[in-house]
Amino acid sequence: MAERLGRNDVMDRQRKIATYEQVSQAIEATLEGETDLLAAMATVVCLLHHAFDAYFWTGFYRRMGPERLLIGPYQGTLGCLEITFDRGVCGTCARSGQTVVVPDVHQFPGHIACDAASKSEIVVPVFDRAGRLIAVFDVDSDRYDAFDEVDQRYLEQIMALLSRFDMAPIYHLPSIVSC
Ligand code: SME
Predict the structure, then answer these.
(1) CA of 61 to the centre of ligand 1 (A)
(2) Could you list the mean pLDDT of each consecutive 10-residue stretch along the chain, which spans 179 residues?
(3) Which of 37, 108, 114, 119 could pair with 167 in a Cys bridge, judged by C-beta atoms 3.0 to 4.6 Å apart?
(4) Which of 3.40.50.1970, 3.30.450.40, 3.40.1170.60, 3.40.50.720 would CATH assign to domain 7-166?
């Protein structure tokens, strides 16, 4: 069985907090004046992915149906294209509307292994200003136990920044009735 690394082996807590503070400021500054949700998602992914060694796969799954997630902007190895709400860590997050932290993905029933190198994971819900789920933000690490309450707190704050974007996801647009 692979050796489990403690949280402090992955990254010192204070260093992690300082890095999240810096990245959060960089994200806010970069997104100032931006109105396009896709551009914002791509920016968030890029800045976070390159700030942390523990981030192995970083990306969004967008809500594209009542219970359907479709891949959005991401960095890392090839991600699964589509995930339904009844599957995986992403589906669990989408169903509950709550952040899910998984210290060991091999112990999570139904975990979807897009890449066998993934060992731990955090998935954070993304809501629009009306409180509707529009996406989930998924980070995988190639280390066990890489994510804790610090990651949850900062990632939830960063995802809250996306609620101000006006571009509604397709799922929430009024349906077009043909004559
Ligand atoms: N592991 C996720 C699937 C997405 S990939 O990690 C990129 C899950 O179980 O939902």
Answers:
(1) 9
(2) 51 90 98 93 98 96 95 97 97 98 96 94 96 96 96 98 74 51
(3) 37
(4) 3.30.450.40
